[in-house]
Specification:
- The complex is a heterodimer.
- Chain A is α+β, with helices and mostly antiparallel strands.
- In chain A, strands 13, 14, 15, 19, 20, 21 and 22 form a seven-stranded mixed β-sheet that branches.
- In chain A, strand 17 and strand 18 form a beta hairpin.
- In chain A, helix 11 runs antiparallel to helix 13.
- Chain B is an all-alpha fold.
- Chain B contains 14 helices and no strands.
- The longest helix of chain B is centred in the middle third of the chain and has 39 residues.
- The chains are: A alpha+beta, B mainly alpha.
- At the A-B interface, helix 1, strand 10, helix 7, helix 14 and helix 15 of A face helix 2, helix 3, helix 5, helix 6 and helix 7 of B.
């Protein structure tokens, strides 16, 4: 007892001590208005994880791709409105039959070591990607290529066996320097630790587990970036990162919804930082194992969707920082069908649909029964994702109201994959997908992808969807593709193989000394080389 | 003594092999493979690619062959290459992180022993007084308070509110250009909070142990004799009692040896210190077998050596064991 009291006293005094410490952080005097663009200063960006391999072909983690994005270029890239535009390629032609793409490359582009970039680099990158000895995860799109050639130093053309719409976007992959890699074992190349690219920033230093430093590349073909240095700091804990931001050790990070909503609304914070908010390219869903007889009837799936209040989940889990998902595309992108509305929250309708499907209320415990079996199932989700767990709990409660008994099981990701998903050994799961810019959804929804370790693990099979997916990826005509994807969304909204739950928001925060940031459908990073800090506000 | 030493050394070999065999089996029993962790949920992976990757890492071979290969490499002191996508030699990855972890742990260990022993003695000699109770509360508080919570509070106080200390990492930005003195000072400022928190959290065990030992010794007949013959209390405690009370501490010191290269994941994560704890944790999560085995082997080796050293020191310090053995 005595220990308890003393501990309370000490804790209390600790808390009081902290409360007594007033905010001594000097409010940085910011010049209002845009100021004058100036070269120099540095940006320090926080990241949860360290990069692993700066040859992006061999990497599979976000930090590696983020860094590679500054160091390398692709032939094409997405502009601020998510249209494909030239990057290392100035322009391209697609042959009438849609089989051959010819890229016309920029002239005079220099690698960071001064050697000129040519079509030989593109050809090498293609060859090493499809080389069976290269342990890469990204060769699939390029295996569709029947012939690749470089007729001269500034032309590169590829021919496909059949028209393949995602092909163009696939050439956004980072082009590697042939003169440094050709004839060597790419897995043992030192470029993995000190990359050489053509991008706006050149590699300076990597201290494992601590930071990666990049310097502005003066001869960048789109002009020298204003911000002279880019520092990528590894801070594995989000709370620490947030304090580091407030203490001035970081200039940019991604906020959590609670930080965005509840902890950053002070005048001091608003003077020192600008918050941004736009939908992320991802969605979270509740997927049903369609091989399970319990979910075979689409009325049951429709009923579950009707019983779930998606707005409540967004409010409770994301603090309102997200929007309801109705299909597999990010709202506002060209493939996303704005007229799709799946089932609104309507428990009465849910009960009616369940009754139609033959589920009856017979027991006292309120759980529905059909053929003597109670309606009870388990939702699986992966460990370490608090948002998914909370979502599961809210769903659990809502489904109880309509007579469905839900259990929740949280598993380590590896175990969830191998023991449950790969074996088709699950009832339902809450997971998320990242959406790509190209709307091709072959891998997740085509009936040929229902095998073990494939991504249509819920076993969704629809002849019409198969046909539409094939048609959509087989033409470069955007209008035609749009019609296919609009129809697919109608089918999915009716079939409800997933209950699409929400699209979260990206919530980046950037120090207010950085100017020139213009939020667009592509986010804020697309014009990073045009960001600047007015001379009088530069810190580093 | 020599025969004892040789016997002990010979026993280490089967013990070590047994440890590696068990750990190798256990880590492979965990569901999921490195290839899966790299390729999971990636729409761009085909079954052929996955198979190709498995062959590349030698995962398509039966487990005993994999173990044989691993052991053969190990006998040449080759820990192999990491299965993570950087594909670097395991030994490089460990080397990169050991200095930080080792220096942090040594400083914390010195502080721990340097503080806990006097605290334990003090508590024992002032048994049941207010001082003893105060000390008890203090050390148990350190033991009971979650490290991450305390760390976050202190970071908020000293880093954000007062601005006295840096919050995380090891160096300030631009520390490459500092003078050596300034550079050291910079590291010191960065390490202050982590070491303070680590030491505070570890005082309880050792100081309570020391207190108990001391109390036991103080109750012995020869202490009563010493007091009876009129020795000063200082001489009784520090010359006669302390020597014997410290004996078991030697064992503890030996046990601390493997801990020197092990780091705490939570701790390193909170303070953004790139140490062994994080490396190991990420290795396990990614099923990076060579890396995990590499760290475990070094850990097992140090444990065995630590135990041996503790036993030997014990024998040196205590004639009863030396002659009895």
């Amino acid at each position: 007892m005595r220990i308890g009291h003393a501990a309370c006293l000490i804790l209390l005094s600790l808390v009081l001590l902290m409360a007594a410490c007033t905010d001594k952080q000097p409010v940085r005097q910011t010049v209002r208005g845009p100021g004058k663009p100036a070269y120099g200063d540095a940006i320090v960006v926080g990241s949860i994880g360290d990069a692993s391999n700066l040859i992006p072909l061999l990497a599979s983690d976000t930090p590696s791709f983020e860094i590679a994005g500054y160091v390398y270029n692709g032939l094409v890239k997405y502009d601020k409105d998510l249209n494909l535009v030239g990057d290392l390629a100035e322009s391209w032609d697609i042959s009438k039959d849609g089989l051959t793409i010819t890229f016309h490359l920029r002239k005079g582009v220099k690698w960071h070591d001064g050697v000129e970039f040519t079509s030989a680099d593109v050809l090498y990158t293609y060859r090493v990607t499809i080389d069976p000895k290269t342990p890469t995860a990204y060769s699939e799109d390029f295996k569709q290529v029947k012939r690749a050639e470089a007729p001269d130093r500034y032309t590169f053309s590829v021919t496909y066996g059949k028209p393949f719409a995602p092909a163009l976007a696939s050439w956004g992959m980072n082009i590697l320097p042939a003169h440094l890699l050709e004839g060597k074992d790419i897995t043992k190349s030192e470029l993995a630790r000190r990359p050489v690219g053509t991008g706006p920033y050149r590699f300076k230093e990597w201290v494992a587990g601590q930071k990666i430093v990049l310097d502005a590349y003066k001869d960048y073909f789109e002009g020298e970036p204003y911000i002279g240095r880019y520092v990528y700091r590894v801070i594995p804990d989000n709370s620490t990162m947030y304090m580091e931001l407030k203490a001035g050790g970081l200039d940019m990070m991604g906020l959590t919804p609670v930080q965005y909503q509840r902890q950053t609304d002070t005048p001091d914070f608003k003077a020192r930082f600008n918050k941004y908010r736009y939908p992320a390219s991802a969605y979270t869903y509740l997927g049903y194992n369609l091989r399970n007889p319990m979910f075979a009837d689409k009325r049951v799936r429709q009923a579950i969707t009707s019983a779930i209040n998606k707005d409540e989940i967004i409010h409770g889990v994301l603090f309102g920082m997200g929007q309801v998902a109705h299909g597999p595309y990010k709202p506002g992108t060209w493939a996303s069908n704005p007229n799709i509305k799946d089932f609104d929250y309507n428990p009465a309708r849910a009960k009616q649909l369940l009754a139609e499907a033959g589920w009856r209320q017979v027991n006292d415990d309120g759980v529905l029964v059909k053929d003597g079996k109670p309606f009870t199932f388990t939702i699986l989700t992966n460990q370490g994702n608090d948002q998914r767990l909370k979502t599961a709990q809210i769903i659990q409660r809502r489904l109880k109201n309509v007579g469905i008994d839900v259990k929740i099981r949280v598993l380590e990701f590896a175990s969830l994959l191998t023991n449950f998903i790969d074996k088709g050994n699950f009832d339902a799961l809450i997971m998320g997908w990242t959406t790509t810019q190209d709307p091709d959804i072959f891998d997740v929804w085509h009936s040929s992808k229902t095998g073990p370790k494939e991504l249509n693990f819920i076993g969704f099979k629809s002849k019409e969807v198969d046909r539409l997916i094939e048609e959509g990826r087989g033409t470069f005509d955007t209008e035609k593709r749009k019609r296919c994807y609009y129809r697919i969304q109608e089918i999915l909204a009716d079939e409800q193989p997933y209950t699409f739950l929400y699209v979260p928001d990206s919530l980046p925060v950037v120090s207010s000394r950085f100017r020139g940031i213009e939020p667009a459908p592509a986010g804020i990073m697309y014009n990073f080389i045009k960001w600047y800090v007015p001379k009088e506000e530069q810190v580093y | 003594m020599l025969r004892y030493l040789i016997k002990r050394l010979l026993m280490l070999v089967p013990l070590f092999l047994g440890i590696t065999l068990i750990t190798f089996t256990v880590i492979h029993l965990a569901p999921g493979e490195p290839v899966e962790m790299q390729t999971a949920m990636n729409p761009k992976i085909s079954a052929q690619t996955r198979q190709k990757l498995r062959e590349y890492y030698g995962l398509d071979k039966p487990l005993h062959i994999q173990y044989g290969r691993w052991l053969t490499r190990l006998s040449k002191l080759d820990f192999g290459r990491s299965f993570a996508s950087d594909n670097r030699p395991v030994i490089d990855k460990i080397k990169e992180r050991i200095p930080v972890t080792l220096s942090l742990n040594i400083i914390a260990l010195v502080l721990e022993f340097g503080l806990a022993i006097p605290i334990g003695i003090l508590a024992a000699t002032h048994r049941e007084t207010l001082l003893d109770k105060g000390i008890t509360i203090f050390v148990f508080l350190g033991f009971a308070v979650p490290t991450f919570w305390l760390a976050l509070l202190l970071m908020y106080l000293f880093g954000v509110k007062l601005g006295w200390l840096p919050i995380s990492g090891l160096h300030s930005l631009g520390s490459e250009g500092f003078t050596p003195v300034h550079w050291l000072l910079d590291i010191g400022r960065h390490l202050f909070l982590p070491i303070a928190v680590a030491t505070f959290g570890s005082l309880a065990g050792l100081s309570r142990y020391m207190r108990a030992n001391m109390l036991e010794v103080l109750g012995q007949d020869y202490i009563t004799t010493a007091r009876a013959k009129g020795l000063a209390e200082r001489a009784v405690i520090y010359r006669h009692a302390l020597k014997n009370a410290l004996l078991p501490v030697i064992t503890l010191l030996g046990f601390s040896l493997p801990g020197l290269i092990g780091g705490s994941v939570i701790f390193e994560t909170i303070f953004a210190i790139p140490g062994m704890g994080q490396l190991f944790y990420m290795g396990v999560m990614a099923r990076d077998y060579p890396l995990v085995m590499g760290i475990l082997v070094i850990g097992a080796f140090l444990t065995l050596v630590g135990n041996l050293l503790a036993d030997l020191c014990y024998a040196l310090a205590d004639p009863r064991i030396r002659h009895g053995g």
